[in-house]
Structure formats: structure tokens, C-alpha cells
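pasting for ref
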Amino acid sequence: MPIHLRSLAAALLLAGALSVSASAQQSGHAGGAVNIPQGQDATEGSQSDTAATDGVSSWSVIALLKGIYVQATKALGAQSANGVDVGAVEPFAAATGGATPANEIVPANTTGIGLKSSAGTVYSAQLYNIGTVPLWLKIYDSATTPTCGSGTPVKRLMIPIQPTNADGSGSNISFGPTGFKFVNGLGYCVTGGIADTDTTTPTANVAAVNLDWH
């Protein structure tokens, strides 16, 4: 269904984004003052007003609503949700923002890896193994590089194996569009055992760890 300026205005009024002054509500005439979020007054305007193109200049409320409508419909298509035509918003990769990839071919040691010393998010993990025993990826919420075998990981992920190890095995894990939150920082260890205190050294060059984080 089409989006009407009157409906959009009503939605903004209900959300508290705009509020019509008491005098305007009582009189009901087009010249009543309407308070916009910055605290400035704007006239209601008329249907012929040109759509607003910025948030700095003085515009009538009709011009502001037309500007909002123009910007909103740029991202709207023909997909319907709950009976309302809200369109299809398609995400795309950009040169800025998004996740940072980290990858490692697991060496023959249990040296921890620090990825971030402040709050962050892990979005996904891809884990692969051509060895003869499973390994364990342990992810820590820590501002410092973790010491393998010490502390408590917030995630323990198995790096599995196949019965025929040369065929390899893998595990592709997604933590959803919002990711998994880390408050203090982000680091990980790879060891041969599941216990938090384990320091079993992996065999070199048989496993790979990929993490997508921000």
C-alpha cells in the first residue's frame, strides 16, 4: 500500500518526534506552529511546498514530511510485510564497516592470540581439520592476550575430524546478524583437549581457524 504523508505525520506525532502546539490543535488551521525536535517552530505549510533537502534550513512541516518521504522511499521496493508495503532493503559490502577477518593455520604450540583489547563482536567462525584428532577453539572475553590453560573461555568450539582424516572436516558457525558480544576484549587459544586447563599442543599445519569479528 502507498505511504501517505498524512499517515507519516500521524506516526511521527504518535512517536513523539513532532508535537502540534495546543493553539494549533484547537484552531485546526494550517498556520499553526509545530514544534520540531530541535525546539524550533515551523509553520505547517501547504501541499505545494518543496520537499526539504537538509536538516539545517528552515522548512515547513509539509516540506519536512515530503523530505522524509523522499528519503524513506529510496530504500523501499515492492515486498510486502504484514500487509504493509515496506519494500526490500538489501545489505551490501562496503569498503568501510563490516567484520574484520582473522585467520590462522594452527601451529604446534598453545600460544594465545589477542585480536582486540576493547569491546567487540564475533559474527562467525570457520574451523577446519585434516588431522587425526579433534582440536578445541576457546574464545576469551579478555582485554589481554589469553594464556592457554588459564582463565575461563566464553565459547568452546570443537574443530572436528573425519573418519578418513585426509578428507578433512569443518564447522561453519554463524552467530547471527547481531553477532556474539565481548565486553572487555577478544582473544583465543587452540588446544588438544576440552578442559579449560588443557595445554595439549596441536599438531602443526593440520587445522585452520577463521574468525569474523569487529
